[in-house]
Amino acid sequence: MTGMTSSERPFLNRRLAEFGTTIFAEMSALALRTGSINLGQGFPDTDGPEEIREAAVRALREGRGNQYPPGPGVPELRAAIAAHQERRYGLSYDPDAEVLVTAGATEAIAAALLALVEPGDEVVALEPYYDSYAACIAMAGGTRVPVTLRPDGGAFRLDLDELRAAVTPRTRLLLVNTPHNPTGTVLTRAELTAIAELAVERDLLVVTDEVYEHLVYDDAEHVPLATLPGMRGRTVTIGSAGKTFSFTGWKVGWVTGAPDLVAAVRSAKQFLTYVASGPFQYAVAEALRLPDSYFADFRADMLAKRDLLAGGLEQAGFTVFRPAGTYFITTDIRPLGESDGFAFCRALPERCGVVAIPNAVFYDHREQGAPFVRFAFCKQSAVLEEAATRLKTLAG
Fold first, then answer.
1. pLDDT at 17
2. How far apart are CA 238 and CA 255, in angstroms?
3. What is the DSSP letter of 177?
4. Using an 8 Å Cβ cutoff, are 380 and 149 in contact?
């Protein structure tokens, strides 16, 4: 089979032709083949809280969620999501009309873009961006318009003038991610206020991916875009249990927003998975009600791991952009005499037994991301220490 029909038309829909196997699959396979430490894909190597795992077992045994759960999500989880948004941010959502449970944040992004974008619409996204953004915009028939975050003073920064200039009469939607994967940037209140003012002025919808909301460090602050003036009715906010509770395999995410926005997203979502993760939804409802100490301890643990890996990367000779959020570190490989992130990452397992991800996969402007490489630090400290030891061999 050649992947072509007799008419020579490829099997794969042309909207997806540019998207092959994801870099995550390629690098994870490379990690397995070489026995390397996988700091590429962003999944923890330990499970989240034992009492939450037990809550899932209890739901399974009691027959809660073993059959199709309600389309919008189980009522207990929707209520817990609404309570979380209220307690954390003062955002009040109706659990019945303004909360939708999804098969992870990945489905939330897909459903939101398929629902809200039509062919010809432009979607402005901050570059580098998580790879599913580009694919989902393409599946919706939209045109992505990247605005590049650039290194400035040890972090990646948004140029607000460039953002404003990217908006045209065809712009339908701004796709915002903060805390930002892969750069670790946390947009400031001033930056988000400017984004909000632009959205109101140009009457734009905003989809905001806030899955790392509980992982902000140092003096950074996570400000949900929906809390800003004029944004409550035009913002679709996406959250994730996988990132906050370290159960990425459960695939429980959610959308919050005004009733008409959530209804639109639900219309697309019902024809994607319909429903998912039944028993896990009950467990996540309990997780969202964990005391503040859980979230504080989780953040402190990740902060210590950030500093452990960042120190090792600096000693290995990388320029390190110490992240203000997420569990990823972006590095610059040029001090090591390298400039091609793809070649560097493909050779790294053989060179020192560590796997990372080339940031260029997150860019339309590949050359902008060429010298940057991302490492995940959501791993056990002993694993990070061993990775740091191995990486130091790069420094000669």
1. 87
2. 5
3. E
4. no
Three-class secondary structure assignment of 212-225: CCCCECCCCCCCCH
Provide the token pair at 198: 């632009």
Which tokens in the block code for residue 344?
A: 């560097």
Tokens of 27: 């690098």
CA geometry: angle at 243 spanning 182 and 140, to 5°?
Answer: 65
DSSP state of 255: E
Tokens of 363: 């860019």
Beta bridge partner(s), residue 145: 124
Question: Strands, E, within 228-381: which ranges?
Answer: 235-240, 253-256, 319-321, 328-332, 354-355, 357-358, 372-376
SS3 label, residue 349: helix
Question: Can you name the residues that pair with 4 across neighbouring β-strands?
Answer: 10
Are 309 and 390 in contact by the 8 Å Cβ rule? The answer is no
What pLDDT is stored for residue 42 in this prediction? 87
Tokens of 23: 């870099």
Residue 330's beta-bridge partner residues? 321, 374
E strands in 192-303: 205-209, 235-240, 253-256
Name the residue among 384, 387, 369, 383 with its Cα closest to residue 321. Answer: 369
Residue type present at position 244: T
pTM over 0.85: yes
| pLDDT score at 75 | 98
- In contact, 273 and 103? CB cutoff 8 Å: yes
Structure tokens at 383: 């694993």
pLDDT for position 2: 56
pLDDT in tens, 330-363: 999 999 999 999 999 999 999 999 999 999 999 9
Amino acid at 231: M
Judge contact between 389 and 360, C-beta under 8 A. no
Contacts within 8 Å (CB) and 24+ apart, 50-54: 51/286, 52/245, 52/247, 52/283, 52/284, 52/286, 52/287, 52/290, 53/247, 53/283
